[in-house]
Amino acid sequence: MSLEAEEMSLVDHLTELRRRLIYVLIVFVAGLVLGLFVAKPIYLYLISADVAQGFILHAFSFWDGIGMYMKIAMAVSLVFSVPFIVFQLWAFISPGLRPVERSAALRYVPYVFVLFIAGIAFAYYIVFPMALSFTISITRNMGLEETYGIAEYFEFLFSLVIPLALLFELPLIVMFLTKLRVLNPLRLRKMRRYAYFALVFIAVVITPPDFISDFLVTIPLLVLYEFSVFLSAFVYRRQLAEDAKREARYVKAD
Q1: Are 42 and 72 in contact (CB under 8 A)?
Q2: Overall pTM > 0.85
């Protein structure tokens, strides 16, 4: 291939990438607009959590109310954007994939949304109440006067919910990479100790600085990793069976 052809190919790829990014930006902005319309009922629902009852949320800045609405709108937009981003990523790389890989990748896209919602539900209904209850109990045991800001409340909430929702995509990513033969269960088991260390580190970083929150997040992440290994083994066994059938057909043909 000539240098001019390679340059044209690179330009075509960059043009395609820009087009995909514009699509993602349009969907994100549309989700943001939708999020602003539904921000108030979501806000009322989020502050109605049982563990949040008993204290009044304050605004310490003129921007706190607007910032809270924008955070909720961005979270809503993210729910719709993540599956679309994955689809656009698939559309961008699919020309370089084999038909079987292209078909497999497309089948995984809907599950991105399902796992993201499952992660949000787990983080909000299980991890967040326990973490908030623990931090409030420590504050009260120390005899401190409670004055909570609306911005801090939602920062605490989203710092737990959003990262956990994204981490719930781990099994799907592992299955996809196994399907592409980038990963396999043997490799995942060999790197288990390093993966555990990375997951524990992530749990400590995304959670408030207390042992209970770290523990509540770490255990599900480790379970997710082991579940990912199980799914990888399932896909890998099917690949081996398909390879064996293909090899048997070639032997008979000879």
Answers
A1: yes
A2: no
